[in-house]
Amino acid sequence: MAFHHRPDAPELPDFSMLKRLARDQLIYLLEQLPGKKDLFIEADLMSPLDRIASVSILKQHEVDKLYKVENKPVLSSSEQLCFLVRPRIKNMRYIANLVNADKLAGRTRKYKVIFSPQKFYACEMVLEEEGIYGDVSCDEWAFSLLPLDVDLLSMELPEFFRDYFLEGDQRWINTVAQALHLLSTLYGPFPNCYGIGRCAKMSHELWRNLEEEEDGETKGRKPEIGHIFLLDRDVDFVTALCSQVVYEGLVDDTFRIKCGSVDFGPEVTSSDRSLKVLLNADDKVFHEIRNEHFSNVFGFLSQKARNLQAQYDRRRGMDIKQMKNFVSQELKGLKQEHRLLSLHIGACESIMKKKTKQDFQELIKTEHALLEGFSTRDSTSYIEEHIDRQVSPIESLRLMCLLSITENGLIPKDYRSLKTQYLQSYGPEHLLTFSNLRRAGLLTEQAPGDTLTAVESKVSKLVTDKAAGKITDAFSSLAKRSNFRAISKKLNLIPRVDGEYDLKVPRDMAYVFSGAYVPLSCRVIEQVLERRSWQGLEEVLRLLNCSELAFTGGTKDDKAPSESLRLILVVFLGGCTFSEISALRFLGREKGYRFIFLTTAITNSARLMEAMSEVKA
Amino acid sequence: MNRTKVDEEEYWNSSKFKAFTFDDEDDELSQLKESKRAVNSLRDFVDDDDDDDLERVSWTGEPVGSISWSIKETAGSSGSNHEGREQLKSRNSFSYAQLPKPPSSYSLSSFFRGRTRLGSFQSLSDALTDTPAKSYAPELGRPKGEFRDYSNDWSPSDTVRRLRKGKVCSLERFRSLQDKLLLLEEAVSMHDGNVITAVLIFLKRTLSKEVLFRELEVRQVALRHLIHFLKEIGDQKLLLDLFRFLDRTEELALSHYREHLSIQDPEKRKEFLKTCIGLPFSVEDAAHIQDHYTLLERQIIIEANDRHLESAGQTEIFRKHPRKASILNMPLVTTLFYSCFYHYTEPEGTFSSPVNLKKTFKIPDKQYVLTALAARAKLRAWHDVDALFTTKNWLGYTKKRAPIGFHRVVEILHKNNAPVQILQEYVNLVEDVDTKLNLATKFKCHDVVIDTCRDLKDRQQLLAYRSKVDKGSAEEEKIDAILSSMQIRWKN
């Protein structure tokens, strides 16, 4: 039942090299400030840093004490201070306060700021304005690709989503282009390239420019990865807004997987302590259940428990010698498995408890109704009731967005009444959240014109496009219609299946949503890979508002080893969910591909909503 | 919400999805429990020498030696040494699953030695020597001055490219408006937001704001970068000027309104909200802003009053149920709950009375009843609950009516541990028979189940229910009496 790749599936490239590179770069940077120093680390960088370096490595390079960058007085007495931060204005103000306080006290120290993954001019401007430019030295630590698993690279930039898709700030595009450039230098050029979305297109162009500027590096290199696919998150918001029901996604929705590991609380560990657990292919139990629909997981775990019991039982009939063998060879593995098994059983139990309490079944039913587009009225009153009862604000918001996108916006009457009730239940300041959601195109109100017939709207579209020219083009999210229903029909996202959908033997990618819905993003990728182009998908592109934003490219290498042509790097700009990863792993298994995932961050519905929320929980 | 269990099953059966129930009696959970038992039974055997392949972790679960852990240590030891020692002492007793061993330290020299990889990868040392601008080889050794260009004759596109590489690059030579705009357009066409912002910082410094705004109005990508930049550095004044210039009145209003979030003092916040009232919001938002102001105004009055009452210790409700938090800045529904809890019987004229809140903020009936019910049920004030649903018609007959549906009433009552007699009364009011039967069974309202089965003439179901009630109980007797009754013509 677990995922086994076809015997002919290609091997994955070795991404551990990226960790070594990042570590070596950091060491190099630390050595630029010789002598003992205290290191101040931004909270968001701590987990990624933990994955590639350790305290002993930092100590070897004369880091004395470690501090978190936070709004507290600094107690360090070191003569040299080093700051490891994301390029954010508030970090600059923090450093400026510190340096200026030292100046006032007549104290001289050396300061170094290491920006990761790169510095921004706005940050330098603040340093200049605060009068400390020149007092601090600035460096960049281009650590932008963290391998979270054998097939998953994360840029660990959750702010990418808000910065680009809400604010329209393109500051991370260079970071993406640099990361892709690094990958092509390490793993060879990509013979085939596809992409969809404005950000994808811009990243691709900037990346190509980089390659041209530093021409020759990848020449003559054999490609290891045959295809690269870039996709903007706003091409498919629907998938990211759905409740996840494959195990890894459900664990993420329930406990929040952070930088590849999860904190299991006492309710899971059935002890008084919390446990931080790495979730990746090295965890043999997890590896087998991560992509499974949750309903299959119990069966698997109990089978596993029985096997384990049997293996332990074998020791009963053993003589001394066999027992010695058993202890020296098998016991350790069994114990490890036992530990993992009890953890995942605990996690399942805890998930079940939480989901039963929140009436998960009703929720899933509503989501499916929204996806399929039936009994919208019922769904609307379900959401209304959610709000009235002050059930989690994030959950209510998510359902409203799902309703909006699947229905091409809410009808004005519903929009107004849901919004009013939302503000009454969760606080008036969420007015700002609604404004954000509208700007990002996640929660909109149907304009009166939206009820026009197809022909009429086509005509009016032509007119407005021409009249407004450049301006609408640049700020199009307001005018964009999601067209989800039409896309769904065109791409067959709601499988029409007779009888019951057997989740134990999935027949398509829809299994990640209980057989109700094939993730739009994954379907687009599948279709393009099948065709090796966008040909025949023109209508879909039009409905996605991406007619001008889909592209193909690549180095068209005839010498590309056939092995490489079955390796596909998928780049999610704005985040991808574990459900999408599972769906594509499934597709890969069916077709003999292997997918590699590069995402700006792992995301899910709650993270999307929080990014849009003006009031931090 | 009035879908019954039966409906649900019908849905799952009629639909192609596998019914996936999160139900306690479900097979799968019992399967899970079984597995858990099995695994737990092995624990004794396994736990004896648990420590060998585990790493030490601290009390927070971070592995000792990890960076996150170490930071907490610094924080801890600089604060209180005693606590730090306590942590150290207890640390050994925690186990940690599955974190990688600290990676072997990698010396700098090996970085330059480089590595070859399956013949398909050029070594890093090559990479370092042949192109100094290699993105992954840090070019930090050299003094920054080397990048500074004194020649001042870079073309716009060269300038923009140098900016993208993070090099210091003077923009001073772009003095004519035309040159400035050329530079901006070059930056925009390269797509790097950081460079666009760098150029904008320069333009902001060297152009009057009218000219800057005018030019950005027709350059939307750059405009968005400027807006985001101003938001980030907190230049609220210029941001508002910009919105005013662009005639984006709603954004102007919202942006002004946003400032209230950073005002902590309730009085000052209230005064600030007052200044928001006249701003050019959309019609519906203007009403929300007005409500926000009125709500905070009320909350300040209620808070002062109640804090006084509570500290005086004379009011029973505050003695019995001390307030857990201040009501300031809470949402309207929370405020309504609070007022239903502490001020239920107050006349409409007082600011803190629920009826007053309902009128002032035009709270819909449904929402009001839901909230009042939850509050009164929490206090176990069953009379109030009863009164909430009693209406008189014009003939003077009383009738029970619930705008939220009685099935919902029952659930809320159950959540607040209402006694069976109370529950029973409301279960009986549920109109849909199947829903009623389900709820009655779920909440053990035996009489309702029995009577309903009798009314349905469903002998089989009654028989089945008999096995669920206690032996020798009054319920069993009642069932037996009904079953042996000759008056009923059973349908099965």
From TrEMBL, chain A:
UniProtKB keywords: Protein transport, Transport
Superkingdom of origin organism: Eukaryota
SUPFAM superfamilies: Sec1/munc18-like (SM) proteins (SSF56815)
Compartments (UniProt record): Cytoplasmic vesicle, Clathrin-coated vesicle; Late endosome membrane; Lysosome membrane
Annotated membrane topology: Peripheral membrane protein
InterPro entries per the UniProt record, alphabetical: Sec-1-like_dom1 (IPR043154), Sec-1-like_dom3a (IPR043127), Sec1-like (IPR001619), Sec1-like_dom2 (IPR027482), Sec1-like_sf (IPR036045), VPS33_dom3b (IPR043155)
Assigned protein family: Belongs to the STXBP/unc-18/SEC1 family.
Designated name of the protein: Vacuolar protein sorting-associated protein 33B
Species: Pipistrellus nathusii
Automatic annotation (TrEMBL), chain B:
Record keywords, A-Z: Cytoplasmic vesicle, Endosome
UniProt-listed Pfam families: Vps16_C
Domain Vps16 C-terminal: 177-277, 356-469
Glycosyltransferase keyword on record: no
Compartment list: Cytoplasmic vesicle; Early endosome; Late endosome
Keyword Chaperone set for record: no
PANTHER family in UniProt: DEFECTIVE SPERMATOGENESIS PROTEIN 39, SPERMATOGENESIS-DEFECTIVE PROTEIN 39 HOMOLOG
Protein name per Swiss-Prot or TrEMBL: Spermatogenesis-defective protein 39 homolog
Native source species: Pipistrellus nathusii
